[in-house]
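Researcher: Sequence recovery benchmark, item below. Answer with residues only.
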């Protein structure tokens, strides 16, 4: 009996230690990712400043060349040629800086997507431990949800609308907001309730009678 108890304690300690290690590793990765994002933002700011510097420099050079031309008009063609070359060099430098800036911006977006992905995984794990979940459902034309206000959403006590995405807009989930075909609805709640809500948005199967409508008595 004693050996069995010690075995259980050892197992629990091993699981706890592993979970602690995973937590520390996850936090370290998150901090490292945020540090990289800050560094890339600083690099992008530096590139923008260099572009401004190039623009200011070429403007000053053109002013000097035009001023010299007004004072000495013996070689006007050479002055125009110098200005053209100055502009060509500046354009080339700015294009190189912009290409570098585009690459930095892409890295920032990728890191932010990784951060969001990690946060979503953590959220899903937290919900799963409590028999909950998060669903992304699209309102299908002809479904029961199409044309209905959010207040008509059949739901249990633990289900709520987190967000409604319509085209490029993020809509606040108010009671009078009407669902339209193509809307993307983000729901959070008990997984069993979320599974039954799929039919209301997608019209795939008959709806379970155990749900009630908000504001309507059974």
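Model:
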């Amino acid at each position: 009996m004693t050996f069995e108890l010690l075995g259980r304690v050892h197992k629990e300690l091993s699981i706890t230690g592993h979970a602690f290690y995973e937590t520390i590793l996850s936090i370290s990765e998150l901090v490292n990712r945020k540090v990289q994002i800050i560094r890339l933002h600083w690099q992008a700011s530096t590139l923008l400043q260099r572009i401004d510097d190039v623009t200011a420099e070429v403007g000053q050079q053109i002013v000097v060349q035009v001023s010299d031309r007004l004072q000495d008009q013996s070689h006007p063609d050479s002055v125009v040629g110098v200005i053209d070359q100055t502009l060509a060099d500046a354009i080339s430098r700015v294009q190189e800086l912009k290409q570098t800036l585009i690459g930095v911006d892409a890295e920032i977006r990728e890191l932010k997507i990784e951060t969001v992905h990690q946060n979503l995984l953590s959220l899903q794990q937290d919900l799963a431990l409590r028999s909950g979940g998060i669903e992304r459902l699209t309102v299908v034309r002809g479904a029961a949800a199409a044309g209905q206000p959010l207040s008509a959403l059949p739901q249990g006590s633990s289900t709520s609308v987190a967000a409604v995405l319509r085209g490029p807009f993020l809509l606040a989930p108010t009671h009078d907001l009407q669902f339209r075909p193509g809307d993307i609805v983000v729901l959070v709640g008990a997984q069993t309730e979320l599974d039954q809500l799929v039919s209301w948005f997608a019209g795939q199967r008959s709806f379970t009678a155990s749900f009630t409508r908000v504001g309507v008595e059974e």
